[in-house]
Amino acid sequence: MGSILRSILPIRSSKQDEDDDEFNPEYSFAMEYTGPPVSYDIPRAVPVDVAYIPTASVVSTPFTSGNLSLPVIHPVIKREPKSISSEIEDTSLVSGLIVPDTPPEGEGSSASLGFSDSQENSQEFSMSSEGDGLDNYCHEIVELCNSSQQDENQNESHEEISSYDNRTQVVTFGEPESISMVESETDYSQSQTGVVVQERRHASSQVKKGLCHRCLKGNRFTSKEFCIVCDAKYCSKCVLRVMGSMPEGRKCISCIGYPIDESNRGHIGKCSKVLKQLLTDFQIKQVMDFEEACQINQLPYWLVIVNGKPLSLEEVVQLRSCLYPPQRLRPGSYWYDKLSGYWGKEGHKPSQIITPQLSLGGLIMENASNGNTKVKINNRVITKTELKMLKFVGINYKDCTDFWLGPDGSVLEEGQKQVKGNMWEKPGIKMVCGILSLPMPPKSFMSSEDETVNNGSKIMQKNIDIKPLTKILLVGQDQSGTSAIYKQAKTLYKIPFLENEREELKSLIQRNLYLYISILLEGLIKFEEEYSIQIRNKLVDQPSTSAAGGSIENIYSLSTKLKNFSDWLLEIVKSGNLGTVFPAATREYSGVVEELWKDKAFQAAYARRSEVGAFPIVADYFLPRAVEISSANYEPSDVDILYADGISSSNGLTSMEFSVPSSFTNTYMEVTEHNHPPLQRYELIRVNSSNLGDNCKWLSMFEDVDLILYCVDLTSYDEFYIDNNLILKNKMLESKSLFKTMVTHPRFKDKAFLLILNKFDLLENKIKTRPLTECEWFHDFNPFISNHTNNNNNSNNNNDSCVAQYGFQYVAAKFKRLFGELTGRKLYVTSVTGLEADSVDVALRYGGEVLRWVDEENKPKSSNNEWSSESVETSS
Ligand SMILES: Nc1nc2c(ncn2[C@@H]2O[C@H](COP(=O)(O)OP(=O)(O)OP(=O)(O)O)[C@@H](O)[C@H]2O)c(=O)[nH]1
Ligand SMILES: [Mg+2]
């Protein structure tokens, strides 16, 4: 247990605080970090392999900007029984986010917890029984460990608890022992695919009403915050201790990873008074964002039943992302009239009119709203209240009782073409609906001039989805440069980075800094080993050196303190917890970073960075400023933001709306006073391939996009990565594979694609030494380069540039051919250097042109634009 606590509670004693000379990696920031709650990608904060086994891939979409209408997609997370060690890791992760304070003075708590490497299993704890701070915190952690063990193995659990009980002779925690604050029960519910097991947690019923569930003080008038999972209430003194930095919103630490109590869904994202007193506006926003966006807090989609059929995840996504989604969607049974958009709770009159024509749920049943009027609208027997409205509109329901109601309000007799009247055009209808508590359609339904077509048995509404924006999807494999292009577009079209976006980027840059350091440290270890061998060989060859008492110093050896830091950092990176520890701990370690950067051994490794395999090029930009970046006062510049690898620490989906001067669509046309097209609004949605889920299953979310910008890193042809199945994959081939998936996706059948071949600047350098033939797909690349070189630098540069151009043309042609074979259509291609504003500007304008051309192409024979390989050249 000692080692358990040690891994959970790495604590620095005040003594250790004073003599800070030796870096001790066990001094986690957890106990000392008093900054704001940290911005973390939730799935990373609780690593999937440690804490959860998700049944579907994760698409976490904390929107970082824009009014993206797309929803947050979330998998079902089943909480699997965990091993004690995994729970501990889980807990320690969470504890990394906690801001537990030192034991309050004057409460008789004299905590003296310490450990040293040599005494791993024999720590001494001494606390007074009234300790209120650390001891209670420890108690909670111990409880957590115990409860997790119960999950796994009852018997083992008893053993562990009894050993803990023995320990209580030394450590006394000031909490009533008999009360377990949270109780769990298992809930079985039927889903489409089978039984879904969900663990439900609720606060202990033994705590008296009004009392804080942690300190057991207060009364019903004390302001409290509650846990959205178990409903336990905490006073303002306890809430941060119990909830830490709330990576899933307001949940006790032990409730993290559990679904919320559905009765609390209405409270999600709504901050309470207590939290407002404790946190800054920025912190509150982050917590609320986590609460709303994190996957486990999402609606359990299988509990939403429409027309008798439980919805699939995709259907819920569709429902929530449609133009007029149901308000306050909760688990329950609903009916939905696809034709009119009427929506209501099963057995009740309609409550809302949502977007019609959504393909979800089963067929509407006659008795869906429990009507008893014998009059049917779109096959549903309507209620008496609705009948009154029909009467008010003047529809004669005596002769005919079966009607069709279109989304625009037109009423037809079943099987007839003639429109009998229009529900929504009748003067006074709004008032009547108000009186009868019946829903009115959104305004745009009524004002749309859509053509209603009656095919005898079915009303089809054309252009029902009003598309206010032209949507552009920007997608590519990791490192393809999608976020660089997105950020560049933001700057180009004057969409400022909001304060929280800058904060996110700052966190990202600081976290990545530690990643770059760790990559170099790994290289350093290799260099040190190599150098040791050299020294040994030298000593063998020249024994006189050692005989003379001379020893050769290893120039790659770090001091003990830096070595400890190095081991600790590498361990964190290896365990995948970098995002959990940094940037929160940045301030803590900025001193060490400064020391490391000035260290000769580290500098020696930095000088050999080109030999360190995974060392990213962009690290060259950030690492020399390690001291500045790791300091608490660091503010990223615009260039830092552009160069940062990514856009937010969560790397979720991002979107922005922008409009550009009319020339956006007129780069290749003469702009005259008369041919200015109207100002067009665009929505740029950037998504990283990892956000598309396994086999790109979320692609259908983007079916309403007008143009897809598919981004490929031109320099990835000789780069590899190891996938989840430990298979070595060529990055260019992976890009090709994602491209194929996208262009053949049924929802993208007719979409326009613009291929962005990015990092052209880097290609120019790389292609000199690494031929394109390194990638098997490009095996026949054989550019003809003039041998007529005069020994002059200029001509060499021209040749390099020429080869890069050929390379680009070749890659473009490969993708074009592939696209042609798969779709029979033309692919538009452009080369881009994402870090250059002009280059991105031209590419996006070209996108505008493509849209216009595609439009024209779809018109009957209006243009004869030929997009041959020459067009590739023009476009670039
Ligand atoms: N030299 C050079 N670097 C680039 C270019 N485009 C992007 N980069 C860098 O390449 C790295 C990866 O780019 P990102 O924009 O993060 O691309 P991404 O990985 O597809 O996007 P995210 O998934 O959001 O991280 C970043 O460090 C960029 O600064 C380019 O055209 N030239
Ligand atoms: Mg990136």
Describe the structure.
This protein is of the alpha/beta class and 876 residues long. It folds into four domains: 2-297, no CATH class; 362-461, no CATH class; 470-493 and 660-764 and 810-875, P-loop containing nucleotide triphosphate hydrolases (Rossmann fold), CATH 3.40.50.300; 499-637, Orthogonal Bundle (GI Alpha 1, domain 2-like). A six-stranded mixed sheet has the order 20-21-19-22-25-26, with helices on both faces. Helix 5 (134-152) runs antiparallel to helix 6 (154-167) and helix 25 (760-769) packs across helix 26. The radius of gyration is 32 Å and the shape is flat. Bound molecules: guanosine-5'-triphosphate and magnesium ion (MG). Guanosine-5'-triphosphate binds next to helix 14 and helix 25.
SSE map:
Blueprint: H1 2-8, H2 14-18, H3 42-45, E1 53-54, E2 77-78, H4 84-95, H5 134-152, H6 154-167, E3 182-191, E4 194-203, E5 224-226, E6 233-235, H7 239-243, H8 273-278, H9 281-293, E7 304-306, E8 309-310, H10 313-321, E9 332-336, E10 342-345, E11 352-353, E12 376-377, E13 380-381, H11 384-393, E14 402-405, E15 410-413, E16 419-422, H12 429-436, H13 443-447, E17 452-454, E18 459-461, E19 470-476, H14 482-492, H15 499-541, H16 543-547, H17 560-574, H18 578-581, H19 586-598, H20 600-607, H21 619-622, H22 626-630, H23 638-643, E20 654-659, E21 681-688, E22 707-713, E23 720-722, E24 728-730, H24 731-744, E25 752-758, H25 760-769, H26 793-823, E26 828-831, H27 837-858, H28 869-875
Parallel strand pairs: 7-9, 12-14, 19-21, 19-22, 22-25, 25-26
Antiparallel strand pairs: 1-2, 3-4, 5-6, 7-8, 9-10, 10-11, 12-13, 14-15, 15-16, 17-18, 20-21, 23-24
The structure holds guanosine-5'-triphosphate and magnesium ion.
GO molecular function, one term: G-protein beta/gamma-subunit complex binding
Protein name: Extra-large guanine nucleotide-binding protein 1
Organism: Lactuca sativa (Garden lettuce)
